[in-house]
Design goal:
The structure is a single chain. This protein is mainly alpha-helical. The protein contains eight helices and no strands. It has one domain. The chain is elongated and about 50 Å long. The mean pLDDT is 90.
Length: 159
């Protein structure tokens, strides 16, 4: 019973939330792969295997970042706001896959990617005063979403 008292809910909550986001986003992505293969893509588009690896790393960093902040500031009102932002960010992440692959709305996905980037920057700014280490873990996420936004825009212009 002592072990259960020491169990920290966030060690389950954050990874499961991210896994659920990844799984749902993956379902949307899989549904549109045959359509995606018909698109004109920029020559510098990374292969799907690289994209999958990058997203896996980003999701791990996001999870660790949230756990680090939770450990120190779980009773802080600012942290509660970050948790809401974290959930919103995951929803936006799934929405991009829905818009791009499932709905085949490239321009809508581009606009949504810009909103996703804003949510990543908001997470970074919200964490900055709480934990620099947790904040730095999100920099690759911001860079990747900026790249993905530009790539989405280029796919839009080519099609």
């Amino acid at each position: 019973m002592s072990y259960l008292k020491k169990f920290k809910f966030q060690f389950l909550l954050f990874p499961l939330s991210v896994l659920l986001c990844s799984w749902i986003g993956g379902m949307f992505t899989s549904s549109g792969m045959s359509w995606y293969k018909t698109l004109n893509l920029p020559s510098w588009t990374p292969p799907g295997s690289i994209i999958g690896i990058v997203w896996t790393i980003i999701f791990i960093l996001l999870t660790v970042s949230m756990i680090l902040v939770w450990e120190k500031f779980k009773n802080n009102d600012q942290y509660r706001g970050l948790t809401v932002l974290f959930i919103l960010n995951l929803l936006l992440n799934m929405a991009w896959s829905y818009l791009f692959f499932y709905n085949q709305n490239i321009f809508g996905a581009f606009i949504e990617a810009l909103i996703l980037e804003i949510s990543v920057i908001a997470l970074i700014l919200g964490m900055w005063k709480l934990s620099k280490r947790a904040t730095f873990l999100l920099f690759p996420y911001a860079a990747w979403v900026a790249f993905a936004s530009f790539l989405t825009y280029m796919v839009y212009t080519l099609n």
